[in-house]
Amino acid sequence: xxxxxxxxxxxxFCVLTCSPGDEAYSLFGHTALRYVDEESGVDxxxxxxxxxxxxxxxxxxxxxxxxxxxxxTIGYPIFEYDYTSRGSTVTLQTLNLSxxxxxxxVSLLNxxxxxxxxxxxxxxxxxxxxxxxxxxxxxxLSAQQLPLEDRSEGxxxxxxxxxxxxxxxxxxxxxxxxxxTEADRPITPRQQMFAPEYLMYYTAHx
Length: 206
Description:
- The chain is α+β, with helices and mostly antiparallel strands.
- It contains 8 helices and 6 strands, in the order βββαβαβαβααααα.
- It has helices at about 60-65, 75-85, 100-115, 130-140, 155-165, 170-180, 190, 195-205, and strands spanning about 10-20, 30-35, 40-50, 65-75, 90-95, 120.
- The protein has a 6-stranded antiparallel β-sheet.
- Strand 2 (about 30-35) and strand 3 form a beta hairpin.
- The two termini are about 30 Å apart.
């Protein structure tokens, strides 16, 4: 296992943002974290997006937030090929972390990778790949929370969801039906980051 002690000064963490795909589980895009150190040859991705396609009624369970996901690791070249081969772009944003912050982030990620911790109940608003990656980075930083400038004052969960489901009316209807009026309240920048491309924006502007 890659340990905190192996996190080199010249190694770097990146936020990976994959553009939306055509399947229900990929309509909102995807977020993962990459650690790369060319000198040691380490190049791995911490991915919170693993799930079983064999789950009965997967799309309905996904909409209801009743799907279990897992975190795992994979080599970056395989990760990149997997997403680019399906037509998604992969954007890399290098994080400006101190060595101590990188070590802390590795420790936090390794704790998540433990067999008893790696599975989590997925929710596409509150507990998804983007939430998980963003939370891990913030926990690794010295500051309690990063200051975020609101780019979309008054935006709601429903506004963002409709950006990505406008071409899929059946899915949009199902999500709207289940969310109710709670989805129409204005949300903070941190809440907006449930969507990978919003996390990418705030990462670039923080």
